[in-house]
Amino acid sequence: MSLEAQKAAARKAGFARRKAAFDGQAPGAAGKLSELLAGHRGVPLAGYMPIRTEIDPVPAMEEAAAHGPVAVPVIEAAGQPLSFARWEPGAPMIDGPFGARIPAKLDWITPEILIVPLVAFSRAGGRLGYGGGFYDRTLEGLRARGPVLALGFAFSAQEDAGLPLEPTDQPLDAIVTEAEILTPPR
Question: pLDDT (tens digit, 9 = 90+) per residue, 138-180?
Fold first, then answer.
């Protein structure tokens, strides 16, 4: 089976596990994320506006916004890295590409911490996304300029020990689930 076929199968299974976890989630899923971010107050942060069955980081983003700049990703073109527009709780939002909400006013910032959505993850820091490569390109570019902390945020049910990866897949520095904070070995 080709790597692309393996990734497609892993995505299908990951989406199914994520939907089941989303449907059965208890309130407060962002608690562990808030706990981790509390140690990084004031550092420019990028979260995301959840789509479909993604775990919701917005409560943790709201807490972080009281201490420093928070942004959300904006897809400007296929095959390009993401840009990040400043977000504040209650700010006017519009529909962006792929159904994610983005700020109506685009005030660009460069984050040093990224909360990264995903379809599946491994405890070793592997991440399987939607297949567009946006976060891989973005993390590669940001890491070339300096330290960046990539935090995968997912339901624990999204773990996949046999995740198919390739050299361009950027590793996560930590994975935060509703149940625990995982720090992969480096």
Answer: 999 999 999 999 999 999 999 999 999 999 899 999 999 999 9
* pTM, full prediction: 0.93
Q: Tell me how far apart the alpha carbons of residues 88 and 86 are, in angstroms, rounded to a whole number.
A: 7
Determine contact, residues 117/155, Cβ cutoff 8 Å.
no
Query: In which residue are the tokens 């989406």 written?
Result: 15
How far, in Å, CA of 140 to CA of 171, rounded? 10
Residue 86 near residue 70, CB atoms below 8 Å: yes
Q: In whole angstroms, what is the distance from residue 46 CA to residue 30 CA?
A: 15
Q: Report domain 3-161's class.
A: alpha beta
Contacts of 143 (CB under 8 A, 6+ apart): 170
What pLDDT, in 10s, does the model give residues 75-109?
988 889 999 999 999 999 999 877 789 999 999 99
Give per-residue pLDDT as tens, 34-52. Answer: 999 999 999 999 999 999 8
The domain limits of the chain are 3-161
